[in-house]
């Protein structure tokens, strides 16, 4: 990994990114437009912002094989499905419940990585995810006491999290063969087209929205996407993926605080308990996962050093 320092301290950039993505649910709650319209314009505006900088990657785009194009299409469909389900969940449940459930993304990535890539996780890491799952059950149980709509929102958030996990697993395979910037742009465009087709088929209006809604669409594309997700991708050249992934824990915390201050949302004691279990379990998982990566890196380093020492021991 490149150890050069960014122009701004990593910790400050991470804080900016966490605050930015925490605003995503707030903007969605503020909008009265359908979730599919919000998702379409969020992706479209972000793609327009990224497009002027894609020229250096044009050669890589033309060199893509048919299999890669099909995987890109599938990844875009999964991203659109994630936005549709997760953004839709906020119509029925609280910001806190939805974002805490979405933080379970590593659970589904771990399962998918085992099925697709035969990657195994440490037992201690798995136990941390088990605690997080129990926390989600607590959140859902607390929502049942509020209304059936809240539980519906929780389920939509779960399915949306499964969709984004599939999107990331496909991306893990593709970014090994193509620039991550190009991958993100193409997937954003594909997902935007999927949303456009969905809205057209459902008879949802494309343009009949007041100026306030267009402002929210622009904020969704700039704040949580550019200053959130794209910023985190950029930070990978300066710090470890494990450090960047800690934003998974930061988003529900930031979103809960913002929802309390800006939306007046409050949680029951059971939901707070569930949220603490989710965050604690995920923190344990990420910590154990980072230790496993460090051990594997140390073993690889030792294996690389062995051939150099063999001739000396033989003499």
From TrEMBL:
Location in the cell: Endomembrane system
Signal peptide range in chain numbering: none
Family, as annotated: Belongs to the EamA transporter family.
PANTHER family, alphabetized: ACYL-MALONYL CONDENSING ENZYME-RELATED, EAMA DOMAIN-CONTAINING PROTEIN
Major localization listed first in the record, in broad terms: membrane
Organism field: Paenibacillus sophorae
Name of the featured protein: DMT family transporter
Ranges annotated as spanning the membrane: 12-33, 39-58, 70-89, 95-116, 123-141, 153-170, 182-202, 214-232, 244-263, 269-288
Gene Ontology CC entries for this record: membrane
């Amino acid at each position: 990994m490149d150890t050069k320092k960014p122009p701004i301290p990593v910790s400050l950039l991470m804080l900016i990114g966490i605050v930015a993505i925490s605003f995503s649910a707030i903007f969605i709650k503020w909008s009265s437009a359908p979730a599919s319209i919000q998702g379409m314009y969020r992706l479209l505006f972000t793609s327009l912002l990224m497009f002027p900088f894609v020229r250096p990657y044009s050669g890589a785009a033309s060199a893509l094989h048919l299999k890669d194009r099909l995987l890109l299409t599938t990844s875009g469909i999964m991203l659109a499905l994630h936005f549709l389900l997760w953004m839709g969940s906020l119509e029925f449940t609280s910001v806190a419940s939805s974002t805490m459930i979405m933080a379970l993304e590593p659970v589904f990535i771990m399962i998918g990585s085992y099925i697709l890539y035969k990657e195994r996780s440490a037992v201690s890491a798995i136990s941390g995810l088990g605690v997080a799952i129990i926390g989600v059950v607590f959140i859902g149980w607390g929502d049942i006491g509020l209304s059936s709509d809240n539980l519906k929102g929780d389920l939509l958030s779960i399915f949306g999290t499964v969709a984004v996990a599939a999107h990331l697993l496909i991306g893990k395979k593709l970014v090994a063969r193509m620039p991550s910037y190009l991958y993100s742009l193409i997937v954003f465009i594909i997902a935007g087209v999927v949303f456009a087709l969905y809205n057209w088929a459902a008879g949802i209006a494309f343009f009949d929205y007041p100026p306030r809604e267009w402002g929210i669409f622009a904020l969704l594309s700039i704040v949580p996407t550019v200053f959130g997700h794209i910023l985190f991708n950029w930070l990978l050249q300066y710090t470890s993926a494990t450090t960047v992934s800690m934003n998974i824990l930061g988003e529900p915390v930031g979103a809960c605080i913002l929802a309390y201050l800006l939306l007046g949302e409050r949680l029951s004691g059971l939901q707070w308990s569930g949220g603490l279990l989710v965050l604690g379990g995920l923190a344990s998982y990420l910590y154990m996962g980072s230790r496993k990566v460090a051990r594997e890196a140390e073993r690889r380093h030792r294996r690389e050093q062995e051939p150099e020492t063999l001739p000396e021991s033989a003499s």
